[in-house]
Amino acid sequence: VRRTFLAVDVLGALNLIATLTGYLSVSTLIPAAVAIGYDEPLWPYLAAGAIVGGLAFLGARLTRGDRRLGAREGFLVVSGTWLCAAVLGALPYVLSGDPQLGRPIDAYFEAMSGFTTTGASVVVDYDELPRSLLLWRQLTQWLGGIGIVVLALAVLPRLRVGGRQILEHEMPGPEIESLRTRIGDTARRVSVLYLALSVALVTILLGLGFTGVDERMGVYNSFAHAMTTLPTGGFGTEGTSLAAFAPATQWVIVLFMAFAGANFALLYRAFVRRDPGAAVRDAEFRLYVTLLGLGSLVLLFVLAVEDVHGSDSPLRHGVFQAVSVMTTTGFATVDFSDWPILGAMTLIGLMFVGGSAGSTSGSVKVVRHLLLGKILRREVDQTMHPEVVAPIRLGRTVVDERTLRAVSSFILLYIGIFIVGAVLLAADSQRTGTELLVRDAIAASATTLGNGGPGMGFAGPYGSFEPFSDFSTIVLTGLMWLGRLEVLPIVVLLSRHYWRNA
Amino acid sequence: VKIFVVGAGQVGATVVEALHDEHELTVFDLDGERLEALTQRFDVHTYEGNGASRRVLSEAGVTAAGLLIACTSRDETNIVAAMISKAISARTTTVVRTTNPEYLEVWREGQLDVDFIVSSEVETAQAIATTIGVPAARQTDTFAEGQVQMVELDVAEKSDPAILGRPLREAPLPPDSRVAAVIRNNEATIPRGGEEIRPGDRIVVIGSPQAAKAWGELIAPGTEPVRDVVVFGAGRAGSAVARLLLEQGIGVRLIEASLERARLIAAELPEARVYNATGFDPDFLERERIADAQVAVFAMRDDLKNHFAAALAKVHGARFTIAIVRDAPSQEVFEYAGVDVTVNPRQITAEEIVRFAHDPRTQQVVMLEGDRFEVLDITTKRQSEYVGLAFKDMPIRGAVIGAIVRDGRAVFPRSDEVLRPGDRVIVFTASERVGDVERAL
Fold first, then answer.
1. Burial (0-12, 13-18, 19+ Cβ within 10 Å), A398
2. The pLDDT of residue A415
3. Is residue B6 within 8 Å of B28, Cβ to Cβ?
4. What is the DSSP track for B373-423?
5. pLDDT of residue A170 exceeding 60
6. Contact between chains at A390 and B275 (C-beta distance less than 8 A)
7. Taking CA atoms, what residue in A is nearest to B257?
8. A interface toward B at CB cutoff 8 Å?
9. Smallest CA–CA separation between B240 and chain A, in Å?
10. ipTM of the shown complex
11. Averaging pLDDT over each range in A261-270, B101-110, B266-275, B357-366, which range is the top one?
């Protein structure tokens, strides 16, 4: 490609991707240290770190963007960064030659699930995995979470993705023009909060373990679960997810999942600036809490009336599953893969809700639903009264029409991709003879595109994505990637006008 | 008093007409022909030049002037003229006409070095909103930028029995209001708590806009309270009317032809229902049941458009129409078309400005019952004998304080409230006592 024809500074974008991936490769030292502790082979981590780090260093040396990176390059940077990060995530699985994760396609799926904080897994037997490899899985989600908060608060608003610009003013701080410095600045502020919440959760879990409330919550499990709760990831260390732990632990996790699904800019105001009123006044936050409550109520009703798990605490299970699925975390305390139809539909519905914008959760997100509801209400009004001029407000601010159009288009695009994904999975299962119900194809497409985690049927919370064919696995990997970047930055890359001026 | 009038347009001419008998006027304008026309009608000095120029004002001898009235059609010219005059001659009182309510706000916050500001839009809107808000009133007027209202009401047999024939102190009267006078058999008395209201009486009430509305409903329970007003035109005048009506809890539908302006106003007034339409489309009027509105206000910028839209609305069955009229001659044409009330902002502005020429301390004078009674808006002096007294201890000497304005906010005094120096008081009194009251305060 001759550079002069390109309107995008590809080399500059590659330079930034290489730099970010290079920093990320240092993180392989953590599982390496764990490997020493458990007396497991540490070379896969060191080799993965060295290979990716070396390539990144080379890439950064060979490319030197001479132009300042702007919004235009941002699309390329975010799309490329997640692809490269997943390569780094996959290498240790491949290099260790693990029987469950060693195949490159499965390894890449698992790594993408990690860095997109989805939580879908091809692992069947957790006890067979080396402890260091298991921790690397958890760590990819924790690292992905930081990336996502920065993405959500600093990058996507500037790229005007799906009406994201409404959040542009949300993160307190000076307006910085350059993409590079803006990412750095937000990353610094948010990672402190993210780190603090993680430390708080680790401390509480350790406390539960030491006091004997939850005997299975040791040091390893405390760290492992804190690492996947705050990024709304959902990777666990047990085949039965959170069911292996005490009710007290589960309630603590519910609270922190709810935090993780809230707007981090609001959490920053509440905890750092000591202004919790900002959250109470925020329209999205209020709807977020309402929807969490409603979802919990419906599931409580289903569990209590249908007697799914006997008399075993329908309240705890209802609340846990609702919060976990809506915040797109994906932990479970019961196997919901074959719940009665109302329960299953509620869960699939919650997969489309998602948490707040500016959180680590995926899916459509509450604020877009809020705006879509207002758009539809206005449409109904204008059918009768075509001349009515009715601006749509979020709190007290008027949302401009461009943003509203972006929100509607985003939701349409999101649903379109979800349908294509579900159809591809269903068709492919027919071809390969995998037993996949329509419900399960729908759930698998929704949960990966929404970065949730477990689906229904064999891909349920106690199950695995292992039975899917290679083609389906690639589709699912693509859905996670698309969903995490909110679809548009990737779709934009397909447009001719992105690359060229004329 | 020597008075400088900057601007010889419609407002300037009306001001000159009202003041030329008693005062020595100098009129400034850039347009020689306008000045010429004025000198032919009145005995005034004229100065062809920019009234907002320091050289012009000095040459004309602004230091000798007691009052400078800046009433050109351009807000900025008026403000600059007043500020330059203040800089040259601090003791010259300045009155500025503005069409922009924002300047009024800035002035109220003390950020503009101008003694008084008259906003034609706000004055017009207040006149319209009061007419709509208390349909039962014989006469209404507003004080303190609309925070205080005075209404004159005729008590009838059908008035709410709870307040008839009962001592005032026991009757369930609307809060934040005070009966300033009871006029019976042509005799006005200032009522004490033991006085009662009877059918046939005429009463004067001073209170908050909400209280005035409540009084209207007590005295004339049959009159349907206004809940649905359509305002044509969301310009400054139209939106000012809409804002005041919404503040009184009246539902407002706004019709604006410019989409951009409609969006802006819809964002500003969330409670109003805004349509982007011309108001000339019969289909639209029919579909939106515009004629069902109890009152239609025509506040578009163009008299001709207002005239046409008002006539069309009448054809569709509009019940009560109020039009803002820019040119004095059109007033008759509007009335011929069946418009119930016409309001001329320039006329109102000129009247408002003329009031300042009387006593600079007295901001507003309203005449009642011909000219037998007046309502004054006076700022109290420090040496006033009433300052420091509680209201219950004040001797009643043919005057009653209905409301006080303290730091720009209206206060409706309880009996133990104490009058402070610098308070603006809204006083009702008989005309022959005006001088006494002004001296006492």
1. middle
2. 96
3. yes
4. EEEEEEEPPTT-TTTT-BGGGSPPSSEEEEEEEETTEEE---TT-B--TT-
5. no
6. no
7. A387
8. 385, 387-391, 393, 398
9. 18
10. 0.76
11. B266-275
Question: Looking up tokens 């490609």, which residue turns up?
Answer: A1
Task: Give the position of tokens 């040259």.
Answer: B88
Cβ neighbourhood burial of A103 (10 Å; 0-12, 13-18, 19+): middle
B273 touches chain A (CB under 8 A): yes
What integer is the mean pLDDT of B56-83?
90
Angle at B30 between CA B27 and CA B33, to 5 degrees: 80
Cα dihedral: B32, B33, B37, B40 (round 10): 60
Handedness of CA B41, B44, B48, B50 (dihedral sign): negative
List all residues 6 or more positions away from B108 whose beta carbon is below 8 Å from its beta carbon: B145, B408
**Other Cβ atoms closer than 10 A to B197:** 24
Token pair belonging to A479: 């859905």
Other CB atoms within 10 Å distance of the CB of residue B106? 16
Q: What is the pLDDT of residue A450?
A: 95
Cβ contact (<8 Å) for B273 and A388? yes
The structure tokens listed for A400 are 């401009």
CA distances from A481 to A122, A364, B241 (A): 17, 14, 54
Helix (H) / strand (E) containing B184: strand B177-184
The residue with greater pLDDT, B326 or B28, is B28
> What is the crossing angle of helices A247-260 and A179-210, to 10°?
170
Residue B430 exposure: Cα atoms within 13 Å on the Cβ side:
12
Strands B116-119, B45-48: pairing kind: unpaired
Cα–Cα dist B79/B122, whole Å: 17
| Cα B235 to Cα B104: distance, rounded to the nearest angstrom | 17
Task: Residue B266: list chain A partners with CB under 8 A.
Answer: 389-391
Residue with the bigger pLDDT between A53 and B154: it is A53
- Closest to B357 in 3D by CA, of B18, B45, B14, B57: B18
Q: Determine the Cα–Cα distance for residues A257 and A253; give it in Å rounded to an integer.
A: 6
pTM of the model: 0.80
Question: Whole-angstrom Cα distance, residue B203 to residue B181?
Answer: 6
As given in the structure block, the two tokens for residue B187 are 């005799």
Q: CB distance B263–A391 less than 8 Å?
A: yes
Query: A92 and A45 in contact (C-beta within 8 Å)?
Result: yes
Residue B10 identity: Q
**Beta-carbon neighbour count of residue B360 at 10 Å?**
15
The reply to whether residue A389 touches residue B276, judged by beta carbons under 8 angstroms, is yes
Contacts of A390 in chain B (CB under 8 A): 266, 273-274
Residues A15 and A179: their CA atoms lie apart, in Å, by 13
Q: Which residue has the higher pLDDT, B436 or B244?
A: B244
Above 90 in pLDDT, residue A456? yes
Q: What is the DSSP letter of A463?
A: S
Pick from A388, A393, A398: which is nearest to B274 by CB? A388
Say if strands A388-389 and B341-343 run parallel, antiparallel, or are unpaired.
unpaired
Residue A452 pLDDT grade (very low, low, confident, very high; cuts 50, 70, 90): very high
Q: Is residue B277 within 8 angstroms of chain A, CB to CB?
A: yes
For residue B25, which phi and psi values (nearest 5 degrees)?
-105, 140
Q: What is the pLDDT of residue A84?
A: 94
For residue A398, the chain B residues in CB contact (below 8 A) are 267
What token pair was written down for A389?
Answer: 């001029």
| Alpha carbons B103 and B97: distance in angstroms, whole number | 10
How crowded is residue A278: how many other Cβ atoms within 10 Å of its Cβ?
18
Displacement of CA B54 from its chain's centroid (Å): 32
Using the Cβ of B284 and the Cβ atoms of chain A, whether some distance falls under 8 Å is answered with: yes
DSSP string, A208-235: HHHTTSSTT--HHHHHHHHHHHTTT---
